[in-house]
C-alpha cells in the first residue's frame, strides 16, 4: 500500500526543524483537558480510574516533535526540500495491552526508547521510509534505529513500548513534583497544569490515590508477557501486522504488565 502523504515544505538543508508549523500545542491541550481512564491492572474493582502512566504516555505522543524527511531537489542540487510526518499518526493507544499475533506478526525491529512518543515517531519514520528519520533520545540507540530504517523490513503498523514508569509512593515525595523525565531514574515526576507543576491527579477526587498526590518514578523493571521472555524496560518494538481486523492486533494477555501499545492511522485500513 502507498505510504501516507506527508506535509512538504521547500527549505534549505540547514533548516531548524523546531521552526516548523506543528499542531502539537493544540493536541497537547486537548489531551490535558480530557480525562484518560483505564481499569487498574492490580485492582479487582471495575471502577475506571485515572492512571498517571497512561496520561504520561499520551502526553509524550502529543508533544513529540515531528518526523523529518530531507530530500534533494532534482532541479537544483543545492536546494533541498523537507517533508514532515507526525507521531500523532500513531496515537491510538492500548494501555497495559500487548499487540502481538502468533500467525501474523512480523518483527520490524526494536531499540530502547525514552517514551511512548519516541516509539510512535519511530513507527511513523519507518513507515514513511527512505529520507525520514528520528534522533533517538539515547545516542547509543541511534545506530540501532538507523539499521532498522535501512533493513528494508515491512512497514510498521503497530508499536509496543515496555513502560518503565511506576507510580511513586506519595510519602517518598516530601518536596512534591519534579520535572525529571528520565523513565529509568526519575523520582517524583509530576506534570504542568494551569501553569503549576504538581501531581498527575486532582488530589481531592482521585479514587485510587485516596486523596494523595500521584507522581511517577522511573525504573528498570522488565515487562512480563505470556508468549515469550520478559522484555527489558524501555524496549520499543515495531511490528507489521497485515490485517484490518482489530482482534488481529490487540492481544488480551492477563500476564502482561506495563506494556503501552499503539496503532496508527493506517493500521486497520
Structural write-up:
16% of the residues lie in helices and 25% in strands. The chain is an alpha+beta fold. The chain has helices at 24-33, 52-63, 116-128, 142-150; strands spanning 7-10, 38-39, 48-49, 67-73, 76-85, 92-95, 98-99, 106-112, 132-133, 158-162, 166-167, 191-193, 196-198, 216-217, 235-240, 250-251, 259-263.
Characteristics:
single chain, 269 residues, alpha+beta, four-stranded antiparallel sheet, 17 strands, 16% helix, globular
Question: What does this entry show, briefly?
Answer:
The protein has four helices and 17 strands.
Topology:
Layout: E1 7-10, H1 24-33, E2 38-39, E3 48-49, H2 52-63, E4 67-73, E5 76-85, E6 92-95, E7 98-99, E8 106-112, H3 116-128, E9 132-133, H4 142-150, E10 158-162, E11 166-167, E12 191-193, E13 196-198, E14 216-217, E15 235-240, E16 250-251, E17 259-263
Antiparallel strand pairs: 1-5, 2-3, 4-5, 4-9, 6-17, 7-16, 8-15, 10-15, 10-17, 11-14, 12-13
Helix pairs in contact: 1-2, 2-3
